[in-house]
Here is the input.
Amino acid sequence: MKMVPEEKLMLVDGMSLLFRGFYATGIHGNFMFNPQGVPTNGLFGFMQYLLDAVQQYEPSHVICCWDTPQPTFRHQLYTEYKANRGEPPLELLPQFTLVQPLVEQLGILNMEKPGFEADDLIGTLSANYGQDMEVQILTSDRDSLQLIDEQVHAIIMKRGFANYKRYTIEALQEEVGLQPAQIIDLKALMGDASDNYPGVRGVGEKTALKLLTQFHSIDHLLANLDEVSKGVRQKIEQDLEMLQLSRQLATIKCDIPLSVQLEEARWQGEYMEMDRNTLWRLLQEIPNAQV
Here is the structure.
């Protein structure tokens, strides 16, 4: 009897892969250009990461989720959210408009929703499909660790191509000593410099981990502040409003309105064995971008 392959959904954090691909292949300013003069190293690196992961983890379905240029609900909550981020390199700008059509050429479904980040799409799709099939989140962003459960795993890209770490509940507990939901409270306490929110000023990762190991959650911590050292207690009390706001900012939404036909995301596998030369030829054919 013919075996039916196990159904697995890979959710790709598109911008995470594109930025990582750009910096991995454009080190020291050595950029690639196609005959039309369009820089392509971000696209090249993106494709390598994506196809390597698909080959290694063998999903049956793939959806690529994207951030949009519009402000999100997090910007409405906190105007300084991600305000510390500078403009992307000029060589990367045209590649923003070319990457989604390139993904479509592979038969992969693109998804984006104004007002939300790719993380929120990934969180919602994980919640929608994680009960029925294994979900694999491909990203370099450790925020996704909060989404892990028995059926949802995070595949975090490490240095170098085809180098990933697959996080399950057990792997996260072994490495960090926390459960997935505690990742939200960890970020709320220590803040996130990349996303530009401070958490509790003066509380770093070491202290935040110690507090969560002892109290398990922010709610339980706040209910038992008298058990915390005076110095830490004062810091929390002084930044209580920011602590609660940071928790909102750190929480990936898993219930946004999305409409998707899963069959449209079925991976056809035509490019599974794509080598570097084939990929390079594909990039030679892309047109000029509208920046």
Residues 33 and 39 are 4 Å apart (CA to CA). The two ends are 53 Å apart (CA to CA).
